[in-house]
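Researcher: I've been going back and forth with a colleague about how Aspartate aminotransferase family protein might be arranged in three dimensions. Neither of us has a model we trust, so I'd like an independent prediction. The organism is Streptomyces flavotricini, in case that matters for your notes. Sequence below.
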Amino acid sequence: MDRTLATDLARLPELLEATRRAAADALEALDARPVVPPAGPPRAPEPLPEHACGTESALTAFAERWAPRLSASAGPRYLGFVTGGATPAALAGDWLTAVHDQNSNSALDGAGQDLERETIGWLRDLFGLTDAHTGTFVSGATMSNTTGLAIAREWLGERLGVCPSEDGAAALGPVRVLSGAPHSSIAKALSVLGLGRGSLVAVPTLPGREAVDPAALDRALADTPGPAVVVANAGTVNTVDFDDLRAIAALRERHAFWLHTDAAFGAFAALSPEHAHLADGLDASDSVCVDLHKWLNVPYDSAVQFTRRQDLQARVFQNAAAYLGPLGEHPDLVHLTPENSHRLRALAAWFTLRAYGRQGHREIVERDIACARAFGAALERDPAFRLLAPVRLNVVCFTLAEDPTAARLAALREAAQGEVFVTPTVYAGTPALRAAFSNWRTTRADVRRAAQALRTAAKGTA
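Model: Here is an independent structure prediction for Aspartate aminotransferase family protein. You can compare it with whatever you and your colleague have in mind.
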């Protein structure tokens, strides 16, 4: 063994303690450090070290070279991208994920698969899905949507008497994927799956809304030759609008279609009795996307994909090799996603669900919703801003009251990002900003700081 590596092994408890101190210091500083530090001049990449220097040296180099430049994305005023943080339990689970370093895709080493299936059962219950829905962990909403639409593609083949997983997507002929206000990852998934971005058909939405018009969807399905795919939204990106999932599902009485619901963060409305009606009908979906590194507040790179047709899922993603288990009634996870390898992502989710339960996560959701409402109300009172949509759940979509150009909004966002980070968007043709509340740390005090930072920035960039 390399001498430095052997020394690190002998000192491992001491090195882990040093890492713990560095982590604790970083988390303790979240409230005071800039949410997004000033960019500064770019640094030239350092060359790969030729000789071993050890973990302690690497910790020192990271602390000097990279840590000061990282954003406080784990903190309470990072309001971009609908990104949560990591609860204490989720952080503990993630650390132990690396410690145990499991191959959780194979029944030959089965405890990881069992843990994932238990966690999936908890999540299914949390979101009000049925026992008919099986689930798997993936890296994020884009991979979840891609997996769901891959199963939909196989369902289309089943209806048409072909097998796209064997014969290719061309065997299907023209495909139509209908949606009112789809997330950008839907078009990306269609490109990856060989269905093409051009197969996505925009269906009119309700007036002043991002929710699809069920009557317009009915007409579009009537005009579609053969079976189709419908992508519903349970929480749109800009305004957290929800399609009427029950009304969409009722259209199956007249039309044949696969219903995929993108509920990346909107599924969490089910945790709040006041807002659960928004996600009513989610259980009618054939496949569902939920992104856990948003409102479950587990570390980044964690989502789930649910479906009623695991048999079709396994047909798409089966992987034949002598060292892999057979498909069987309960296929190994390796047969259910594009990834042959993934870390035991379920452990962080298991930890936070086990630690805080339904009530603890309900409190996070309801507090974030209350913070979003308070932030929206503060902006409404400020003559420098105007809201572009009502605050339906946890996202505030707003712009400048006068001359809301993309350039002015970029200057405003950059001026405020030491205190608050928001992301740019365009809503109904108007350049805008979006503040998404999904972090477990966020409080009303953070709302006041964020609103004041934007108010000050608006004056400075007027």
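Researcher: What would you highlight for our discussion?
Model: I'd start with this: The first helix runs from residue 3 to 10. After that, consider the following. The longest strand covers residues 430-436.
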